[in-house]
Amino acid sequence: RLVYVLNGPNLNLLGKRQPHIYGHETLADVERDCRGLADELGLSLRFHQSNREYEIIDWIHEARETAAAIVINPAAFTHTSVAILDALNAFDGLIFEVHISNVHRREAFRHHSYVSGVAAGVIAGFGTLGYQLALRRVAQLLEG
Ligand code: DQA
């Protein structure tokens, strides 16, 4: 079973950017851990990051043809992007939303997510472990 793990803008700077909020792990570390877990769970993985909204939309469209699930950290697009919401609405598989930080204890503009309404589940504030929890849940639901 194929799972897309999609990451939005500025997450390429993970580990360097505001480490007091996002921690010291890099996105390469997250990808490595996700790949290790996916192997264990029998999932195939496409792992992507982009600072461009259209690229994330294109990957969601690509996932429509091939993937059973999308795990997405839309980063700042979470709070702004109707276009990503519309793309996710056109995807029939499982969707999980991940945020490294606890967006609910941060600025008010981070409290609303366009994506949460189409997600089967939302994880926020578990650091990069959130990605692994989402993958475990995907595997559990695909098995059941
Ligand atoms: C984030 C939270 C967003 O509000 C922020 O814009 C990000 C990262 C997180 O993972 O905690 O870039 O999605």
Automatic annotation (TrEMBL):
The active site is at residues 22, 99. Coiled coil: none annotated. SUPFAM superfamilies: Type II 3-dehydroquinate dehydratase. GO terms for biological process: amino acid biosynthetic process; aromatic amino acid family biosynthetic process; chorismate biosynthetic process; quinate catabolic process. Pfam families: DHquinase_II (PF01220). One of its GO terms (molecular function) is 3-dehydroquinate dehydratase activity. Its EC number is 4.2.1.10. The chain crosses the membrane at residues 114-134. Pathway: Metabolic intermediate biosynthesis; chorismate biosynthesis; chorismate from D-erythrose 4-phosphate and phosphoenolpyruvate: step 3/7. Catalyzes a trans-dehydration via an enolate intermediate. This is 3-dehydroquinate dehydratase. It comes from Roseomonas acroporae.
